[in-house]
Design brief:
The chain is of the alpha+beta class and about 120 residues long. The chain has one domain. The protein contains two helices and three strands; from the N terminus they run H-H-E-E-E. It has helices spanning about 1-40, 55-70, and strands spanning about 80-85, 90-105, 105-115. It has a three-stranded antiparallel β-sheet with strand order 1-2-3, with helices on one face. Helix 1 runs antiparallel to helix 2. The longest helix is centred in the N-terminal third of the chain and has 41 residues, at about 1-40. The termini are far apart.
Length: about 120
């Protein structure tokens, strides 16, 4: 009887560990995306390989490209670009809203993330 309880406990522990690993992976990818958004918003368009000032669509495309490199699929309407400041000292705010599904045997969880450049 104790052996059965020990094996069941081991399987439960491995299941919880697997779930925690999957959730932690999603959180880490979101953290990386936040870091990339901060970098893209902080750098000038000449430093990211664009000629002249970067348009909102150029910034959206760059964010989508960076997110794809991390493993986060984004669509153009999920990326928000807001500009403020003067022409000499422009400020760019970037945000990405997305959902990630974590599948487990028997159920799945949906996590909603909002990564911003601030």
């Amino acid at each position: 009887m104790q052996r059965v309880i020990a094996i069941a406990g081991l399987f439960l522990f491995l299941f919880v560990l697997s779930a925690a690993w999957k959730v932690a992976t999603c959180e880490f990818a979101n953290y990386e995306l936040k870091d990339d958004l901060h970098d893209v918003a902080a750098m000038g368009s000449s430093r990211i390989g664009l000629l002249g000032d970067a348009s909102d669509n150029d910034l959206r495309d760059l964010v989508i490209q960076k997110a794809a490199g991390i493993g986060i699929p984004l669509l153009r309407d999920q990326v928000i670009v807001r500009r403020s400041g003067s022409k000499e000292n422009p400020e760019v705010f970037l945000a990405a809203r997305y959902r990630t599904r974590v599948s487990m045997p028997g159920f799945s969880l949906v996590f909603r993330f909002t990564a911003t450049s601030r």
